[in-house]
Amino acid sequence: MADKNPLQKCFLFIILSINLMVLQAETGQISQKKTYVVHMDKSAMPLPYTNHLQWYSSKIDSVTGPKSQEEEEGNRILYTYQTAFHGLAARLSEEEAERLEEEAGVVSVIPETRYELHTTRSPTFLGLERQESERVLAERVTDHDVVVGVLDTGIWPESESFNDTGMSPVPSTWRGACETGKRFLRRNCNRKIVGARVFYKGYEAATGKIDEEVEYRSPRDKDGHGTHTAATVAGSPVRGANLFGFAYGTARGMAPRARVAAYKVCWVGGCFSSDILSAVDQAVADGVQVLSISLGGGISTYSRDSLAIATFGAMEMGVFVSCSAGNGGPDPISLTNVSPWITTVGASTMDRDFPATMKLGTKRIFKGVSLYKGRTALSRNKQYPLVYLGRNASSPDPTSFCLDGSLDRHNVAGKIVICDRGVTPRVQKGQVVKRAGGIGMVLTNTATNGEELVADSHLLPAVAVGEKEGKLIKQYAMTSKKATATLEILGTRIGIKPSPVVAAFSSRGPNFLSLEILKPDLLAPGVNILAAWSGDMAPSSLSSDPRRVKFNILSGTSMSCPHVSGVAALIRSRHPDWSPAAIKSALMTTAYVHDNTFKPLTDASGAAPSSPYDHGAGHINPLKAIDPGLIYDIGPQDYFDFLCTQELSPSQLKVFTKHSNRSCKHSLAGNNPGNLNYPAISALFPENTHVKSMTLRRTVTNVGPHIASYKVSVSPFKGASVTVQPKTLNFTRKHQKLSYTVTFRTKLRLKRPEFGGLLWKSATHRVRSPVIITWLPPL
């Protein structure tokens, strides 16, 4: 393949420059010790050593020299990795890390990365509670055999969502453990929570000892995030679940008969890569079939992305990995977790909402959302003074964000205060208003969030409104001498249209590491999701909030990721022999791209139609995904051959060769990464304008009826003609593989990518792939 285009080179240069600046800032003095993840070539261990730990220790000794009394060897090596990949995590100075990288058998030395969390109605919205689903999802013993590993903040085992009534004994193949610690005993595990482990060595090495007055040095979840994601994946049904009466109904996970293993890797100060990698390594060794990872840490090249390396090893072992796309939207190129062997999940809304209204003194009414339920309520028949402290209704400024300490009691006491969204948590703004004597808050979106509304359990009467409404409300407050308003909270409504809609915060493509690989892969519900919660944390997550709840409503790609993990567990229970790529293919090719008004999916940040860079292949459709008809399968060697097209040096490729016999077999035609057998099809025309045609190849496997005939159709494109050969695929047996080619011929080089779809349709199945054509700017 030709060299990467200038845009990609520029992007990679920026990544490396930022990483370098961060590294320099964190290192300070050259002798200061940091945690490094060291990837080792297992096959290079010399004969005198009887185990890898001995060898690793000698390598560390060779670069560190004599130790001081307080510097025991055990303090240098934090973890060793043996399953998903081979290596160790160690505390080293920059000089020592540089020396270690020169040692024989050392593949790479990567600095520790800090990751962040990407923070009832959904089963029904996804069709998992309809009568049809009872037939398709009739309970089987194999449902209980799938274990989903959740890497997060731990788990609150007393939640009713983890009740194991009716579950069969834990499978004998399960090798996990229930680690004990503060307020977490062995009896806290059961047939639902089959494993619970903690990983904190990297965190403590970076931040100091864990303060057990603030958080538990055990699998118990004080934060709530991990409990929420685990319950979303596989929570048992709980009737009457709600948050202050909102979203009342039965809460259940996507795969309520699957089991959960909690791997606590996130703490008050963040989630550190050495801990995350140890958890992935251990989870694979324990025997999980699905990994759910709702966190991210920016983007790095494949060979410098420790999570990409670890999940490659998990994929080799047959583990499906689902990761959140990130909450960096609506900015383009804001994705994390973009490796093709990871299923990258964006967030969407559902058809449930929590409406509220704001009525101005002019009698004009604006619609918003809220989850406020408290003793204090504003009368719908009375008007209250309204104030906005910003200087411009169209653009926020430091005085408009209601930051801590920014409000003068004299200006806000007894008034409804308008606060712009951003900078600080939404609920915290209401706390600031309340402390200053305000009686209510209107939270107005800025251009970043557009018309997307996220409901919160505020500490005082509050309503969130969109950007357009917000501008009008602020204009009224600034121009009227006696501006007044009142707020009314209306409860729960279902059947909202249009839905789903792409969440404004959901991170966007394109995937600049590899434009030939579409990311995100798909969408799942991630806005206003009800699930189990920690008994130690307020629903607002504010320490000053005394309220405690059993269920909470959260939004983020952290919430959409476990939806996909749970559906993957359902698919795995029906098709235990399917590869991770086959499961991803089933999810992507059955996804839908129209909302409940039968119009194309739209983007909450602007109400315009969304593109595959926003929604990937579309929104998950679990019942269809269990029976997709055809799948696009990809094996570990295929993924490795994809990496061979990414201009990685032999030593960089070696970090992915856990098995020493892995080498480039150049199976992708023309050494073109676009020929990876991905369920999405992306044609990338180079800068050379003489290249006017391109042919990509795909192979599908029949997993539907033994005898089936599929005919193809392709949406029209302005910039190119698209020809598929053959136009019909005739299958005569199950698991039969047939190939086809897609030829793109440029008619007009467009400045922007063009999007469409390719559909294979039989009498019983529809198998859709998004198609993207991109013309790189001429040199």
UniProtKB/TrEMBL annotation:
GO cellular component: extracellular region
Signal peptide: 1-25
SUPFAM superfamilies recorded: PA domain, Subtilisin-like
Main location: secreted
Pfam families: fn3_6, Inhibitor_I9, PA, Peptidase_S8
Domain Inhibitor I9: 35-118
Coiled-coil intervals: none
Residue ranges annotated for the Subtilisin-like protease fibronectin type-III domain, each copy included: 675-773
Peptidase S8/S53 domain sequence ranges: 144-602
Residues annotated as the enzyme's active site: 152, 225, 558
A Gene Ontology biological process term: system development
Domain called PA: residue spans: 383-472
Alphabetized UniProt keyword annotations: Glycoprotein, Hydrolase, Protease, Secreted, Serine protease, Signal
Subcellular location, record wording: Secreted
GO molecular function: serine-type endopeptidase activity
Family: Belongs to the peptidase S8 family.
PANTHER family (UniProt xref): PROPROTEIN CONVERTASE SUBTILISIN/KEXIN
Name by which UniProt lists this protein: Subtilisin-like protease SBT1.3
Organism: Eutrema salsugineum (Saltwater cress)
